[in-house]
Design a protein that fits this description.
alpha+beta, D-Maltodextrin-Binding Protein, domain 2, ten-stranded mixed beta sheet, four-stranded antiparallel beta sheet, 22 helices, globular
């Protein structure tokens, strides 16, 4: 194995798919993902190819996978009825033989596996949480010998008596019990566990007795990954990578290269996004020596020597399923022939087993490259790229993100750099024009006609007509939203039936406040948040046909915005930020963010964008709970508005319009449109119909965790028709230019506070934006 791995790694280095990092200078994934492909010698050969392997017969869920000391691969897996079995493979995962079934107590419908581990000798440990008829939970521990014989053990853990499952000030109704949250085996069969309180223990697997406890991980740190490698325990938290010497239990010196590769440049939001799958964001396995490791992430598979300052990329995640942002890791096995088995999950319920085998005759990088540019990160695009490249191994899709969030670059700065590169012939092939002056790009001839590409999709799956022609120019369509959001207003019929535009909204809100002085109307919104909620249904009115600003419409907007703002109560900035922190910024602006306040009679109206079908089901459910609740399209200074999302165009200066067109066609296909990250409803008609039907048939879904508003009311055929009718009525795209939006928000904050008048706000916007539009 050692020779083969070195040979394979040598090929990958020659192909420049390796990443070298010095301690203190190592980096994670660049905004321009796949930079390793730039400047690559086209003749360089050799890379790992991905093959999806079948799970053992009848199995649908992978719990754990490990290579045993004799070369076999052992897997813990379960079926759709939660029955768990132990399986072995002697041919690298091609075929599987059942070793044994686990006890029924481990496989009941009330049992949920919290963590599991398999030793190199084939022994296993499992922690299972089980429920009772009274609603309580118990954690049980089981160990299995190499033949699958199981026995229950008891583990007594230290417990912080101050811990509680209730919030501050609430009565304690359930006793908190500490438990093991993660297991891992050392090379010599010692069982290591970390508990809920971040204490690390060596546990006797035969008796459950704690042999010794190690230095604990800092309280409050979130454990993202936990793995014993050789004589080292690797613990990845949300703050740093910590290493522990398994001989002494003491924490080791920080490994700067490993820490930087995994965590550098990732803020709290980025880390939370990594934790949304069933598995973990990082996975580790032993390499050739005691300190040699392989580790996997969405960036790919890497090799590293603990304590060293070199990190080498063995497999580029941008070229396979590892790069899918929805993919999370369960385990990895480095096989004797130099190949790797990777167990993971896509989302929460689709488990995958992939095998990566080195091919010396395959080009190190694909022969073609499609450069894609987006101002901001886009989860749907990331996931679509992973799927596209899996089916098109000869095309490398290189995504560049203009705003990383980790520097001081503004939208204007990023667009200026982009425009310079486009004019110099160094720009992208495909543009995701969200936040950009798309109509200006059309007028300047920077976008090519997509009509022929759209015909391909329309003939097989269909496109929603009301959205398809958003950016038509005569007989040409130069850009198309691949998704869209709809501005909605929800409330009792009496409260919203007379709201038909921005003026009638302001009038109705003032009336409701006069009649209900102790109630909120729209809620505790800052001026900028209010602009966000009203932007979609008003922004198109602010631009004239010639692309300049409409002074009269802007003045009306600022005047009515101030009336609406002053009719409601407002929290301090800290309290408002707390609300956004609870829901997340994007969710706060979505229609689901205000449902609870509406049902709880805290607010009388709910405004927001509809980004996905499940939120429409929540709205319908809430309306039926209210009894007289209704929802309709929110009209403002414009009618029938919508928000174009992930709008795509092909640069007229692209050197490979054929490959770019192939990628754009995939983005519009049902396969890509079924991806749901909350980025908007699909424009593909087949994906739209299937997605809406699936959401309507979800079954039991809670509208809220609050007991007073839980449960689901059946969605009727009439409800489905209502949404489709709204979609068919859409005619007016909102302005997607972020520079305009941010300037409006900036002036709105000053206007509602009385620092400037509506006239002054309009004057300030006119000066800044007309100068920007003239560039």
């Amino acid at each position: 194995m050692k020779t083969l791995l070195k040979k394979a790694l040598g090929f990958s280095l020659a192909a420049v798919i390796a990443v070298s990092t010095l301690a203190g200078c190592a980096g994670g994934k660049n905004d321009n993902s796949g930079d390793g492909a730039k400047g690559t010698n086209a003749s360089a050969m050799g890379r790992y190819l991905e093959e999806e392997m079948k799970l053992p017969e009848g199995m649908s869920k992978i719990l754990q996978l490990t290579k045993l000391s004799d070369g076999r691969v052992r897997m813990l897996a379960s079926d759709g009825e939660n029955k768990t079995l132990i399986w072995d493979s002697e041919d690298g995962g091609s075929t599987w033989t059942k070793v044994s079934d686990l006890p029924e107590e481990l496989t009941s419908n009330r049992a949920q596996v919290m963590t599991s581990a398999i030793s190199s000798n084939g022994e296993s440990a499992i922690a299972v949480m089980t429920g009772s008829d009274t609603g309580g939970t118990t954690v049980l521990y089981w160990v299995m010998d190499k033949d699958g014989n199981a026995k229950k053990i008891s583990i007594e853990l230290p417990q912080d008596n101050n811990q509680s499952t209730q919030g501050e000030g609430e009565p304690t109704t359930e006793v908190y019990t500490n438990a093991v949250s993660k297991f891992s085996y050392t090379d010599d069969g010692k069982l290591i566990g970390i508990d809920f309180e971040n204490n690390i223990h060596q546990i006797d697997p035969q008796t459950g007795k704690i042999v010794k406890s190690f230095s604990g991980v800092a309280k409050g740190s979130y454990i993202m990954s936990f793995q014993a490698i050789g004589n080292t325990l690797v613990v990845v938290t949300d703050k740093e990578v910590q290493l522990f010497d398994l001989s002494t239990g003491n924490q080791m010196e920080k490994d700067a290269a490993l820490n930087d590769q995994l965590l550098k440049g990732k803020d709290e939001t980025a880390l939370m996004q990594l934790l949304r799958g069933t598995g973990e964001p990082f996975v580790f396995t032993k390499g050739d020596g005691d300190k040699s490791i392989f580790f996997g992430s969405n960036d790919g598979l890497y090799s590293h020597t603990i304590g060293g300052n070199l990190v080498e990329q063995v497999i580029n995640g941008d070229l396979n399923s590892m790069g899918n942002p929805e993919y999370s890791f369960i385990s990895i096995a480095a096989l004797e022939d130099g190949s790797f088995l990777m167990a993971g999950a896509e989302g929460y319920d689709v488990y995958k087993l992939y095998k990566y085998t080195y091919s010396k005759d395959t080009p190190a990088t694909p022969s073609k490259e499609v450069k894609v540019y987006s101002l901001e990160e886009n989860a749907e695009i990331r996931q679509a790229i992973a799927f596209f490249q899996k089916n098109n191994p000869d095309i490398f899709v290189n995504l560049e993100v203009g705003l990383s969030g980790g520097d001081a670059i503004t939208v204007s700065d990023a667009l200026r750099t982009l425009n310079t590169n486009i004019l110099a012939g160094k720009g992208p092939d495909v543009l995701i024009v969200d936040g950009m002056p798309v109509k200006s790009y059309m007028e300047k001839g920077l976008l090519t006609d997509l009509t022929e590409i759209l015909k391909q999709v329309e003939s097989s799956e269909g496109l929603i007509e009301s959205i398809k022609g958003t950016y038509s120019n005569g007989d040409k369509i130069q850009a198309i939203p691949t998704r869209f959001k709809i501005p909605l207003i929800q409330g009792s019929k009496a409260n919203i039936e007379n709201i038909n535009d921005l003026s009638s909204m302001a009038e109705q809100i003032q009336k409701l406040k006069a009649e209900n002085p102790d109630k909120g109307i729209l809620g505790n919104l800052k001026a900028g948040d209010l602009v966000e909620k009203l932007y979609a249904s008003n922004s198109a009115a602010w631009l004239k046909e010639d692309g300049t600003l409409n002074e009269d419409q802007l003045k009306e907007f600022f005047t009515l915005l101030k009336q609406i703002y002053e009719s409601d109560k407002h929290e301090t900035e800290d309290e408002s930020m707390q609300m956004i922190g609870e829901y997340g910024e994007s969710s706060f602006y979505n229609i689901s963010g205000g449902i609870n306040s509406l049902l709880g009679n805290k607010n009388m109206l709910n405004l927001g964008l509809l980004p996905e079908f499940s939120q429409y089901i929540q709205v319908v459910t809430a309306n039926k709970k209210m009894g007289d609740g209704v929802v309709k399209l929110l009209n403002g200074q414009t009618e029938n508005a919508f928000v174009p999302m992930t709008t795509v165009g092909i640069s007229s200066k692209s050197a490979d319009t054929e490959s770019a067109g192939k990628f754009v066609a995939f983005l519009l296909s049902k396969d890509a449109q079924k991806i749901n990250q909350g980025g908007g409803l699909p424009v593909n008609k087949s994906a739209f119909d299937e997605g809406l039907e699936a959401a309507a048939n979800l079954g039991d879904v809670d509208v809220s965790s609050n007991d007073q508003v839980s449960g689901l009311t059946e969605v009727s055929e009439s409800d489905i028709k209502d949404l489709k009718a709204i979609v068919e009525s859409l005619t007016t795209p909102s302005v997607v230019d972020d520079v305009i939006k941010e300037n409006i928000k900036e002036q709105a904050e000053q206007c509602v506070r009385g620092s400037i008048t509506s006239e002054e706000a309009v004057k300030n916007v006119m000066q800044k934006i007309n100068l920007y539009l003239s560039e």
